[in-house]
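Task: complex structure prediction.
Instruction: return structure tokens for all chains below.
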Amino acid sequence: MSSSFQAPKGVSEYVPPRADLFAAIRSAFAEQARLAGYGYLELAVFEDTNLFRRGVGESTDVVSKEMYTFEDRGGRSLTLRPEFTATVLRAVLEHNLHKQGALPVKVWTTGPAFRAERPQQGRYRQFYQLDLEAIGTEDPRVDAETIALAARWYASLGLTQVRLLLNSLGCRECRPGYRTLLQEFLRGLDLDEATRARIEINPLRVLDDKRPAVQAQLTGAPLMADHLCAACQEHHDRVRELLADLGIAWEDTPRLVRGLDYYTRTTYEFDHPLLGAQSGIGGGGRYDGLAEDIGGPALPGIGFGLGLDRTILALEAENAGFEAAPRCEVFGVPLGAEAERRLFALADELRRAGIAADTAFGGKKLKGAMKDADRSGARFAVILGERDLAAGEAQLKELATGDQTAVPLTDLTSTLRERLSR
RNA sequence: GUGGGUGUAGCUCAGCCGGUAGAGCACUUGGUUGUGGUCCAAGAUGUCGCGGGUUCAAGUCCCGUCACUCACCCCA
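Output:
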């Protein structure tokens, strides 16, 4: 019997044991970020609507039809963040992080984002991302560093089928000319009305249309890769050289375009072949004009957003074997009130020693408490009854093998620590 | 947002041409007065997603609605 209510349409929620996996992969990312010198940010979940209008771009689908926008009691227009980069950059500028220390400012954050799309597996109205940004330098080494960080994280989770799709979208010097060239080409094709409208608003997007009928017509389309200016070409070559130095594989994907207007130069996507239509598990790129677009100084930057929901799905699809640390290693089975007190204290002592411990609650009989021990996933059960108390010992049972030995009560913690490390 | 598919026990699902709801797993209890997982026996569990309609009778047919899901679109 559930209540009269359910979570709003398309909101992804996690409960144990899946939520424990969710927390564990986020912790694994935090460690990667720390090792590479990225600081943590805790930020606003909603913003002035204009931040996204100007940052993400009016011509994008995200801004034009997918934002959760509302008016607060003071009549201000606010929007639940549909992505992280605009918020992170706004916060970095607002808190003057770019003036306080060395550039680039290296930061990361995580949490929910919101888009009003029709939900399906891997696409939710409330979804979760990891976001990492390096702000304040054009050095191609930060492009490679951020890409490598994401790739190392995927690898640390045991994922082996993640593909890195790489492209360069040029800059304010070379893209306008290419854009015009592409528009001229596209106008000559046989396309539906919505796509023709897109040619005028956001022509690059037409390139990664998935429909075969459209792709077939695109074979001779001009590509950004053939029209990069000298500086962008040099930058792109350097990034690829650095990735190769690190042994990170990628696929040059000249048709790759991302749906957010701010991207310049390096643009990429992490893709997982087992996830169907929602195969993009992460993506990012450089946004050298974004800071100015939102009214700030000229500060180049690069970063990515990685989807936690889709990463969980990828882990499950690959059966990757990454597991959260166990919630219980030792389970106390008490028989009687005195044993309950002693094992309650033992659990506390074990936890202080860094060992996950739990005990049966509710005055269960031996059989029921042993069943709880089994279900807890613990390696060891500590059984304590009148007889054992009288003898000053407890029964230590290894659940997988059934081997049971008596251990003096005073030696329990040290014995468990020793046996668990084997 | 567009076009399909599916909603039956905690989970996975069966349920024929409308006739008053089932299986496996999980769960509870017992076989075991101090031993789980295996085995044996017994038991409990459903607003058949929700609302309306047709009918003597609806899980089954019709309409609506909600949720999930597949593709497009979008992107994480």
